[in-house]
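Input/output pair, single chain:
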Amino acid sequence: MADFTNLVNKGHLAQVIFSGLPTAGGTVYLDNIYFYKDAVLPTAPIAAAPNPTHAAANVISMFSNVYTNVTVDTWRTSWSSATLEDIQIQGNDTKKYSALDFVGVETVANQMNLTNMTHMHLDIWTPNMTTFRVKLVDFGADGAFAGGDDTDHELVFSNPAQSQWISLNIPLADFTNLVNKGHVAQVIFSGLPVAGGTVYIDNVYFYKDAVLPTAPIAAAPNPTHAAANVISMFSNVYTNVTVDTWRTSWSSATLEDIQIQGNDTKKYSALDFVGVETVTSQMNLTNMTHMHLDMWTPNMTTFRVKLVDFGADGAFAGGDDTEHELVFSNPAQAQWVSLNIPLADFTNLVNKGHVAQVIFSGLPTAGGTVYLDNIYFYKDAVLPTAPIAAAPNPTHAAANVISMFSNVYTNVTVDTWRTSWSSAVLEDIQIQGNDTKKYSALDFVGVETVTNQMNLTNMTHMHLDMWTPNMTTFRVKLVDFGADGAFAGGDDTEHELVFSNPAQAQWVSLNIPLADFTNLVNKGHVAQVIFSGLPTAGGTVYLDNIYFYKESVSTNDVFGYDVLKIYPNPVSIGQTIQMPVDIKRAQIFDAYGRSIQQIIGSEITTNNLNSGWYIIKAEDNNGKYLVNKVLIR
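Output:
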């Protein structure tokens, strides 16, 4: 509003005028015309900084509840210009600096040897700082200040995000003038506004990056596509077509045929480009939809795949050849990456009936190393229209559950699973002996517990397992009849949640925080659950294990279980988290302890998760629970 500089008064706005060019010829659509005030940001953190996950063996810590800290002489030297308070946030020790101009932290008595460290880490939270600086000072071999061999360097962080925890992982190499790192004796924090900044600091430590392996120790995961839908070039799982050569004479790469855990694998090193040919037995991929390959690289920053079709004449350069190359930038390193590439992405590969060459290349030029396995083409299987396996059995303790429908728990009395005003067909069926509700021709269906209304006040989540062959939208509404227990009695509250594009032809476990039903003000007399969705009057959904539960998992609970081994950690969005092979199921909780995803098996995909800290609670084949935290970035 300040940009309307001549709008001296704002108390009696009576006109809004829109205009523009071309004169008398413009067309514009307008929506969402409103005025707003900025939300008031908090001035202090209410949540503790996230717990670090670097292995203690790789850390020199100055301040963190997670590690054993070195001796620090002082967190505020006498020559500092700042106020220091030692506080706790959610039981976590934290340093608070206010009226900050600069503050010196000293380890003169026990100087730190950071020679083998690669990074400095600290978590900061500020309500108002526009500049934050970090300086490291090394006193040199003589260990004395101003002894002639001191070195130091200061880094500046402009416009740090305010009112949230920021994790700084600073390469020590960025402290370019810090020539020596064997006698670090001072850390100096400063910033703007001068003598007016407030900053909360936690987890101040130095660490060295774990050394990534240069070769895989585990084999690539076995494919699961049905053999009838596959044309395989190289895999121990399938019968492979005849390949003339895995390294043509015109290739620039070194090829080794190796085994990893007994699994045949192709290793290419000094890779610029390599041609693989099936000229003698050209592949007809007309009915295939995807190309699959598993790759593992310790150093490649770009990986390329080219397919070449020789055309109907089957001859190279016969005039009807077509080809297309795809580029994969920054593939994850030191882990198996499964590429499932739609053949439609090879847009210039007009013909696919005589594919005779597959060419791999990438960067660094003539310096890349890549391990390849399970190179095959497949067509998507026709998805089933009904589940053949029952929904997974719940694992929540019965004492923490109010169940409407599940063979595992004692269920409350439900008046009806299809009210008279519903628009859906209901069938009570069994799948592998498990009772299941099937709704078809679904527009909406009401489920009522009016006679025995549910008190969900102490519950935290709603759970249900759903399986649909065709629904693109699924909705869940909860209705509370209020203290009078009567519909439309004046104190009813309700809220509906929408789940877009649920996975089809598989069981999906929804664990919905009751807090997400924001308009469901009361939860003591829940009398209706309404399911609906799209396509209108055409959806089919199978439902099981409909219950409410209370769950409380926090970062502190991590220390109550054995540690779950996961890799990688931290992990980038899109990467797969690997757990031990004996894990049969896992559950993911966000930083607030809310269950957001259930996993069957030992792999977790991160495509649908946001950046931040999560807790993974897993159960192995022996029924033992293991827990760990993971940072997704």
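The CA atoms of residues 130 and 160 lie 6 Å apart. Residues 56-207 form a domain with the Jelly Rolls fold (CATH 2.60.120.430).
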